[in-house]
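Board notes (copied after class):
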Amino acid sequence: MIRLSKRLTLLSQMVTEGHVLADVGTDHGYIPIYLLKQGKIPRAIAMDIRQGPLLRAREHIEEYDLGGYIETRLSDGVSSLHEGEADTILIAGMGGGIILHILEKGRNVIESAKELILQPQSEMERVREYLFQMGYEITREEMLCEDGKFYQMIALCPGERAKKGQSPLFCRYGERLLLERHPVLREYLLYRKSQYETILDKLMSQRENAGIRERKEQIRLELAYINEALTYWR
């Protein structure tokens, strides 16, 4: 049986059973293979923008005799996916800016799916803001730490377009993660708080100028957000 990292295992667990999966940026094709072998999904489309990773994915798919269930496609984002072709679209392991580009460029295709699962490597706040503006409903949020790195992942479904403004705190750290008092989020907040406090101490010892003053203001703002978030555990 194929073995996944903690990050990929948690992502695979977020895919709804019985859904046809489109794995964007599939790399080695591990998640579709794992889900097929588990009997959780009936079939999948594994896509990648690069030919090299796609060839590796095909080799792994054939190794597990799943060629009749997992189709591979060379694709820039979801450009090779048709509307309604997949129930779940998974986009993971990319920078937030790249994910936002994929979401915007392939909006019609993505909005035709029942479920969207994202795991940005950066700019999570921007991604959440975009999704909220587009009317998506977050159905699940998860977070883990693996090899010293923190990962956040979200599952969403299409929602109503009309929305009130989203809390900046929820955009930064995740409404569900905060309300559910996720232990890994608390670990992350304490880790970042320690980092920022160390930076602020160093700045306080430096000679004051406009740049130092601006940087101290930025750090204090970050610490204010972190301290506000930590009140959920009190």
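Comment from the instructor: The mean pLDDT is 94. The radius of gyration is 20 Å.
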